[in-house]
Amino acid sequence: MDMKRRTLLKVIVLGDSGVGKTSLMNQYVYKRFSQQYKATIGADFVTKEVQIDDKLVTLQIWDTAGQERFHSLGAAFYRGADCCVLVYDVNVLKTFETLDNWREEFLKQADPGVPETFPFIVVGNKIDVDGGNSRVVSEKKAKEWCVSRGNIPYFETSAKEDYSIDEAFLCVAKTALVNE
Ligand code: GTP
Ligand code: MG
To answer: What pLDDT, in 10s, does the model give residues 14-52?
Structure first.
């Protein structure tokens, strides 16, 4: 029998508060965007089916809280992740500088077999703001960061304009599938 096997891939989205993690997921899954900021508390997931070649995979995407006081996820939460998406805001330097902390936190908690090859994806969000005039982290600088940490794929997005989000999550799905 040639039954298609269903694959569930666990994806965890991390990054500072306000960078647009929830907005990216809402745009990707529900095609909607809200200007209003509502802090995520704890963690919650959405699912999205993605076709990759002849395989139908289900992404289980976990949104997390960037605010320290809401961020209390134990190792059990991180374990079994197939991919980790690190999000920062290209207009706020601090959110880029903390990427290392998020990455290390993830590796410490998830404890993957081979940390050097665990699939991360980096997303620089809010490229629409002020027509790009208020950005403080250049694409070059972000890409260098990614290259020096094991060639992490890099995407620049706008959750507001729905720019490059499908591409980013397709990459997430493909990378996670390889890791699974
Ligand atoms: P926490 O839940 O606290 O971790 O924050 P978050 O990372 O989930 O941020 P959220 O998605 O709630 O977005 C924060 C604010 O930025 C909201 O007011 C959004 O409307 C806004 N925002 C998110 N993405 C974009 C974007 O691409 N462009 C613009 N202009 N605003 C955005
Ligand atoms: Mg949120």
So the answer is: 999 999 999 999 999 999 999 999 999 988 899 999 999
φ, ψ of residue 115 to 5 degrees: the values are -55, -35
pLDDT of residue 63: 96
Q: Is 69 in the pocket of ligand 1 (CB under 6 A)?
A: no
Compute, in angstroms, the gap from residue 23 CA to the centroid of ligand 2. 7
Residue labelled with tokens 């936190």:
105
Beta bridge partners of 60: 10, 47
CA–CA gap between residue 127 and residue 143 (Å, rounded): 15
pTM for the model stands at: 0.96
Helix (H, G, I), strand (E, B) or coil at 155: strand
Q: Token pair of 1, please?
A: 């029998």
- CA 15 to centroid of ligand 2, rounded, Å: 9
